[in-house]
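User: hey, got a sec? need SUMO-activating enzyme subunit 1 folded
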Amino acid sequence: MVEKNLTNITEDEAALYDRQIRLWGLDAQKRLRSSRVLVAGVCGMGAEVTKNLVLSGIKSLMLLDHRNLTDIDVCANFLAPHDAVGQNIAEVSKERAQILNPMVEVSSDSDDIENKTDEFFKQFDVVCAMRCSKEQLLRISNICHQNKILFFGGDVFGMIGYMFADLQEHQYVEEVKEKVEVEQDGKKQTVEETKMVKRTENFVPLSQALDVDWTTTKYASQLRRTSSTYFIMHRYTGVTAQTIPRIECTRCDSPDYTPAQNIPGPGLYPSRIYRCDSPDYTRPEYTGVTARTIPPEYTGVTAYPAQNIPDVILDKAV
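Assistant: Yep! Here you go:
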């Protein structure tokens, strides 16, 4: 869907994108300059993706999110101002995203992605979806696959993250080393040469990637070679930000603030942290919950190192 008449690179753009033009060439930069991208879900990972895409020099980027900014969002989303808590997260993140690169058209949409029609997604060349339910991801993935739109999905839960890519029919060049026989001084010798081989990879929509019966002979033999990340992704695509219990945090300037050293390790309860001398404190033997048994998703706040890993992979693919 990238515009056929690629926009010419101006002198200012050539100076700004000089390093990446040297890396992947002028034609690739022109294709970037004509790309329209949707980032749905302005979470920590969404902010990282937005930053890298805006800096790369795409044509336009739209931030889509119906949620209002919270204290927890501020911990992971560097595009959102601390004093904007309570306002729409897409709208308040737009300004800092635009400052990153004035040559890119940055817009925001505060509507719920659930309300978007199929036609809405067709205006983009690339769709990146984060903080979506499994049903939403499957729907958007199918829309993109049917309309030749590149689709990326991903999310981060505490220290666990994943990303999925559907690049349709993707062509790329790979360096391959081959041994060939050459004749030198009348003698045949085997030397190693590097050749550039063009390859094509066909991607599938998310529904097909998740719908695998591992008990069949066809896939059982591939089980050992399949990354454990696939199964983690299978679990967490059914988890949304709304369904994850979060540990309630207290601001350090609050009279209810409890220093970390006063909180015993086993005194963690899924929905709140209590002082051990509080009448509401629940002993772990009655709840069955300890610091070691709390699932990773209960960490609540996205960890920067965790969100950077799938983000780097996603941005490289984009």
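Quick note: Residues 240-253, 257-278, 280-301, 303-307 have pLDDT under 50 and may be disordered. Let me know if you need anything else on SUMO-activating enzyme subunit 1.
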